[in-house]
Amino acid sequence: MYLAVEHQIDDVFHTASALKVKMDESTDFSSSIANGVDGLLRQDQVEVCERVTYLEKKVRVQEDEIVCLKSAVADILRRLNQVEAEKAQNSILPTKPVFKSSTPHKTTPRTPRRTPLDNVYVTPPTRHSTPPSSAKSRTPIKKWGSMTNSTELNGSHNVSSKDPQWNSEEGNLRIYLRGRPVSLYAPSDLSDYSVDKEVTTPDQKLQLEYVFGYRGRDCRSNLYYLNGEVIYFCAGVVVLHNPEEQTQRHYLGHTDDVKCLAIHPDKVRVATGQVAGHDRKDSKPHVRIWHSTSLNTLHVIGIGDFDRSVCCLSFSKQDGGAKLCVVDESNEHELFVYDVEKGRKLANTKGSQDPVLAVEFHPSEPNSIIDVGKGHIQFWTLESGKLTKKSGVFDGGTPSSNTGPTKAAEGSYYMYTKVSNIASGSRAVLTTESASLTASSFCLSFQYHMKGLPGTLKVFAGDKTSSLTSIWEKSGVQPNPDQWKNVTIEIPQFNNPVISIEGTRGNSFRGDIAIDDLILKTPSRCCRKWYVIISTS
Questions:
Q1: How confident is the model at residue 310 (pLDDT cuts 50, 70, 90)?
Q2: What does the pLDDT look like over 184-232, one tens digit per residue?
Q3: Are residues 234 and 365 in the same domain?
Q4: Cβ neighbours of residue 434 under 8 Å, at least 6 residues apart?
Q5: What is the tally of structural domains in the chain?
Q6: 347 bridge partner residues
Q7: Are residues 420 and 515 in the same domain?
Q8: Structural domain containing residue 514
Q9: Is residue 341 part of a domain?
Q10: Is there a single domain that holds both residue 273 and residue 385?
Q11: Which UniProt keywords apply (predicted)?
Q12: What is the DSSP string of 25-89?
């Protein structure tokens, strides 16, 4: 019986061992399967990443091809429109005048030519049209031009010193353009002329054929090559000049002088900004986005937002030109960002008091903007409807000429008071008020630079609980103004010491005051052994 039980126990152990071996084999098999699956997944992940990278490159190449195709189609459409116009009007090159025959001949009725303002979509705020005048107060229709004053536009007949005046003795008509008198002499066979006489509008109208000139003295980014044409502006006209055929097309949608120009990434749309006109209601500075082939206005943006004029603008690159940044010529040179399709303002903020020369979106970051100008470069980030700024640091002299140092006294950096566009008497203060200095006497040393027509540089010291006392002062131009000068000042002991360095602006913009190598030492006697507490070098 014991032997039988022993044999049964042995059988059970053998069976358990066999099961354990099988379980170990199944576990090894499962782990091998898991490892194989993980390897396949990793391989698939690598292949997917490579495939996505390849597709991204292909999409970018196709986008470039699409832009080229758009440009080619736009050029073809422009040439077709030009051929049709030549057939319809029998026009020739603008350098050859057209002489009309004295023999009358019948002309076939022509379809009215579409102007660049047809089918215009104006974004809010909406421009309200003037209500039609009554028959009694009807006046001749006058078209707005870049040289027109507001008196001529409003149709008013109030007698004033700047109304047109006929001089019968000299035989000329005296008018005013932008406040300046201009005399127009009448033909010899005209003995009398009435400025109040109402005349009907002529059947024939003048059409702009060729523009001579180019605006480049006070603006930049004003010349581009687009689809076989050179595009630029002069006065209130944007010129699309074909150098091969020596012909021009003109965009006439603006109401006053154009100041800046930008090309959309699709190489078809164009944005142009204008200055403020004489009519405050109808000629406020704004931006127009228009089609370079049909010359039709697509959007009018920023009416009522800008001050004086629009000095520079740019489309975003990374998102296909979905946003437009604009800088005006107000005192603060405000920066605006708009949604191009909706015409909605996304953000705006004050920029720099110095002139801004150019603004651009970052080529690979859709929400990064850079603007540059006189003595500054600024990096803007658009996030959650707000623009945040980081200013670039220049190594060298101050922005204003003939004032300030050309380099730091020690190292690469120094502090200076910038006095351009700052009121006379303004102060810049560097103080230890927020620091907790021990009750002790100190020795202050630094280097200063005062060139041009500077104001005053002072050092104050005292107790935090009382008023400070001036213990050192320099004013006006110093000897050898191009050189940095050292100064060492002993400061007496106070219970709660406070030390301040103050620069006050003078009466000239050429009065930058700079300090460098600032060191505060203790104990008070500067000839003894001392320990550095504050150092800027």
A1: very high
A2: 888 888 777 887 878 788 888 888 889 998 888 888 888 998 888 999 9
A3: yes
A4: none
A5: 2
A6: 337
A7: yes
A8: 415-535
A9: yes
A10: yes
A11: Cytoplasm, Cytoskeleton, Repeat, WD repeat
A12: HHHHHHHHHHHHHHHHHHHHHHHHHHHHHHHHHHHHHHHHHHHHHHHHHHHHHHHHHHHHHHHHH
Assess if residue 119 is contained within a domain.
no
Same domain, 356 and 435: no
CB atoms within 10 A of CB 420: 17
Start-to-end C-alpha separation, the chain: 101
- How far, in Å, CA of 35 to CA of 55, rounded? 30
* Alpha carbons 84 and 18: distance in angstroms, whole number: 96
**Whether the Cβ atoms of residue 524 and residue 491 lie closer than 8 Å to each other:** yes
Query: Contact at 8 Å (CB) between 502 and 427?
Result: yes
Asked, for residue 10, whether it belongs to a domain, the answer is no
The residue with tokens 């910038």 is 418
Locus of tokens 């292909």? 58
Q: Which residues contact 65 (CB under 8 A, 6 or more apart)?
A: none
Determine, yes or no, domain membership for 60.
no
Q: Tell me the pLDDT tens digit for each residue of 113-139.
A: 444 444 444 444 444 444 444 443 444
523 upstream amide cis, omega within 30 of 0 = yes
Tell me: the pLDDT tens digits for 411-434?
777 888 766 656 777 788 888 876
For the record, the structure tokens of 217 come out as 């003295």
Of the candidates 112, 114, 107, which has an alpha carbon nearest to the alpha carbon of residue 90? 107
For the chain, counts of helices (H) and of strands (E): 2, 28
Name the token pair of 504: 């006050």
Same domain flag for 371 and 510: no
Beta carbons within 10 angstroms of residue 228's beta carbon: 16
**DSSP secondary structure letter of residue 308:** S
Distance between CA atoms of residues 151 and 278, nearest Å: 9
At residue 336, the 3 state secondary structure works out as strand
Distance set, CA 496 to CA 148, 294, 441, 490, 531 (Å) = 68, 75, 11, 16, 19
Q: What's the pTM value of the predicted model, to 2 decimals? A: 0.49
Tell me, yes or no, whether 348 and 264 share the same domain.
Answer: yes
**Token pair 């104006």: residue:** 122
CA 304, 156, 201, 166 torsion-angle sign: negative
Kindly state the tokens that stand for 324: 């437009």
Cα Rg of the chain (Å, integer):
38
What gap in Å lies between CA 226 and CA 71, rounded to an integer?
A: 8
